[in-house]
Amino acid sequence: MDNSHAIVIGAGLGGLAAAMRLGAKGYRVTVLDRLDVPGGRGSAITVNGHRFDLGPTIVTVPQLFRELWADCGRDFDADVDLRSLDPFYEIRWPDGSHFTARPDENAMRAEVARLSPEDVAGYDKFLKDSEARYWFGFENLGRRSMHKLWDLIKVLPTFAMLRADRSVAAHAARRFKDERLRMAFSFHPLFIGGDPFRVTSMYILVSHLEKEFGVHYAMGGVAAIAEAMANVVRRQGGTVRMGAEVAEILSVPEDGTRRVTGVRLDSGEVLDAGLVVSNADTGHTYKHLLKGKKRWTPRKLDRSRWSMGLYVWYFGTRGTREMWPDVGHHTILNGPRYQGLVDDIFVNGRLADDMSLYIHRPSVTDPSAAPEGGDTFYALSPVPHLGHDNPVDWKREALRYKEKVAAQLETVIPGFRDHLAAETVLTPAEFSTRYLSPHGTGFSIEPRILQSAWFRPHNVSEEARGLYLVGAGTHPGAGLPGVVSSAEVLGKLVPDAPSAAVTAPEPLAAE
User: What's the pTM value of the predicted model, to 2 decimals?
Assistant: First the structure.
């Protein structure tokens, strides 16, 4: 077996970042993915000239990408055109009030004061709380492995001091009196698959990320970042094989455990490797790809709590570039309920009649997302995953739910259906088949406190030597910063390749 050969399962951003780091360590890397383009959930499709970014839309910690590129001897900004946004996003409520998040701290304080003058002091305290959790939760725990129990025990006093047992929503309620501000500073876990009323308050660190590093958009969408990453892998001499689905991670017994030897594709082809990194969903990896599990058994995975599902309607319009001037790049449209809706999604598993929507309109920043004069949108609604009792039958409900989403959208972009030029929809059913996501979830295992850090599936697998995990389902979690950081953790765990692995990179077919 060639121990200098590393296989990465999945060309999502976590897998591509892992491949880049392994290539920088001298490994000959092969990336395998069942889709036709790299990016995983961060890929894109084009329909009638409209480019639909299928998943993540926001880059919040660009230095993670710059450091990744630099560690590979390259310049991120030479490969990717990243634009800072101002405003970051707008939040709207049914009563007509709104909150605009911006990079300027004084502007943010003015927005808080406009809605609730008595909450300005609480906002200042909240920012300090957020920064403290950033340094501990992101820069400390999030960028190193947490696979040893002692690593957890050592930080328990800090967890206690920072009240990690308190939820994000509960912490926001301690700092803000106005219900709208409580929502505005507690909804962020939904963008990584977490219930704001139950995930640990460590995740208020997102407010510091936004304040310190801004909110950015990659021209060409996140798919452009994925393609740039794949190109780095190729320039390192690695291979990115699309349309190649892994059926099994192969392993042999060794010293009372198992050691990986490579993978078998669904075509029957066997690829040998001394190191395998899975960027497939952790649940899929342990339930379907690896045999003989001892800890992450199907029963344990079935008892885990999973993130919500997503209903996403992607649509393009013609002749609308000058219409709806008050609708920017990112808009959050709230329904009449907050906690009640979240409970229906995460706890009750019920598809509610009301909803809250995230509306993405990239064409206001990036004209290439749509034909000239047109617009590209997606409207995302959090919904229950398919693992609840009596799961939603999307074959029956999809059209009816689409009409409900359209009614909500009409309050923001009136008349949009008269201009439709392209559309497609992804429901949890499509997430299950396209991404092999357990229960059709959008973000893998939910980031509750007892499913985070040491309690989360580890980056270095205890099930087989030579097997590592990256991506949303492992430490530190979902979101672009999380999956890219999981590859950084991998880079600290894996030794440099044997010297024989260092070969001259193959030239790209077209540059």
Answer: 0.93
